Amino acid sequence: MSQKKEKGHRRRVEAEKTELAMIEGILEGSPDGIGVVVVRMQCGCRKMAAVANDGEPASKVIMYRDQADSICPQCKADNGAYQRVAEASIHWLDPPPDEERQEMIHRKVLGEG
Ligand SMILES: [Zn+2]
Question: 14 alpha carbon to ligand 1 midpoint, in Å?
């Protein structure tokens, strides 16, 4: 095994416990999903959706807020606007797709690069 080179600009974001529970639930309901996009908003709300092998959404977008009955008023108003995103990452099903496909889906879903 050769050593993997880390890309500096994209640090790995580990999913939190509550996020993992949500991710599992989303994947259970999304047979086409190969991963779940996890978007953390600056306000503390979360936005998630399963993504398919071709980068298309594989579930509806789910928004929630930890320890709250509903998302915050701002997210209700703008539906989690891109400008307020704190972190976005994709949690891949095991085994994850190859690097190239991950890149492609990242770009398609998160608009990076
Ligand atoms: Zn919010």
Answer: 20
Q: Distance, CA 25 to ligand 1 centroid (Å)?
A: 21
Q: What is the mean pLDDT of the chain?
A: 88
Range list of β-strands (E), 1-113: 33-41, 45-52, 62-65, 85-92
> Residue 51: is it exposed, middle or buried by C-beta count within 10 angstroms (0-12/13-18/19+)?
buried
Cα–Cα nearest to 88, from 110, 103, 63, 105:
110
113, pLDDT greater than 50? no
**Quick check: helix, strand or coil at residue 55?**
coil
Task: Name the percent of the chain lying above pLDDT 70.
Answer: 87
Whether 34 contacts 23, CB under 8 Å: no
Measured distance CA(16)–CA(27) in Å, rounded: 16
Q: How many Cβ atoms are within 10 Å of 93's Cβ, its own excluded? A: 13
